[in-house]
Amino acid sequence: MNALIVVDMQNLFVDLAGADGPAVVAAVNRHVAEAVERGDPVFYTRDYAPIDLPVGDPEGSTSLHPDLDVRGTVVEKGPGKRGGFSGFLLAPVLEPQQGHGGGGLGPLAGLLAGTGARSVTVVGIATDICVAATARDAVRLGYDVTVPLEATAYANPVTGGEHPVLGELRAAGVTVLDRENFSR
């Protein structure tokens, strides 16, 4: 069985993806629909504190994007503003001097293990930060991992060649499906 992990498809990040945002939402929604049709579990990560926000997040920056097809379990992760990038981390930061990633595994690890899945597909935003961290941690936890680039967007895109994070992901054992070579 395969599980789908949808990383940080929150208003803030979809907006930061700019012109790529709507296409990524549409591609992620296709993956969600296919996973649900197969009976595969779907998990959505939501960074509870990606940046410093006004109290109560009045603009809904951390809310899942309204066009996102949500048919699965939403799990908290983060805070990204302190280095909690992986969907598997829940790192409450109590003191400013606490190191990045301080804390431990969040609920995703146990929920995913409970499904019996042996592989995961990781989609969402941002390819070079939270998607990559989630994919690497899934490999460390023993899963076969695939990242289809057509359902991701970069926070820090590069021009004139392949993004360095893709080589790092491949070296970690992640299967990266390039946009050009992706077929349905």
Secondary-structure arrangement, i.e. CATH architecture: 3-Layer(aba) Sandwich
Q: Largest sheet, described in full?
A: 7 strands, parallel
Low-confidence stretches: 98-102
The CATH C-level name is: Alpha Beta
Range of strand content: 15-25%
CATH homology superfamily name:
Isochorismatase-like
Give me the count of strands: 9
GO biological process, one term: pyridine nucleotide biosynthetic process
GO molecular function: metal ion binding; nicotinamidase activity
Pathway: Cofactor biosynthesis; nicotinate biosynthesis; nicotinate from nicotinamide: step 1/1
EC number: 3.5.1.19
Which short descriptors sum up this protein?
nicotinamidase, two-stranded antiparallel ribbon, about 180 residues, EC 3.5.1.19, 5 helices, 9 strands, about 20% strand, globular, Isochorismatase-like_sf, Isochorismatase-like_dom, alpha/beta, Rossmann fold
